[in-house]
Amino acid sequence: MVNLMTEQEVSKRLNVSVASLRRWRLLNRGPQFLKVGSLVRYQPEELDAWLASLPTGGTATTVRPPS
Fold first, then answer.
1. Can you tell me the distance from the alpha carbon of 40 to that of 55, in angstroms, rounded to the nearest whole number?
2. Which of 8, 10, 43, 49 gets the most CB atoms within 10 Å of its CB?
């Protein structure tokens, strides 16, 4: 059995609003989702894969202060 997440569960996990998830879907952004009838569901492994694919910021090198 597949463990599917609701919009509310994903929004809490990502700390974004449900409205943001819906906007991302309209813009073909964000994690992949499934439609089960009229319901939107997310597979946890797809959410993890999407998060892993996002760019990260910062560098591992030391930044010198301006002289």
1. 26
2. 10
Q: Which residues contact 50 (CB under 8 A, 6 or more apart)?
A: 30, 31, 32
Give the separation between CA 19 and CA 7, rounded to whole angstroms: 9
Burial class, 55, CB count within 10 angstroms (exposed 0-12 / middle 13-18 / buried 19+): exposed
Structure tokens that stand for 49 in this block:
């894969």
pLDDT tens digits, 11-51: 999 999 999 999 999 999 999 999 999 999 999 999 999 99
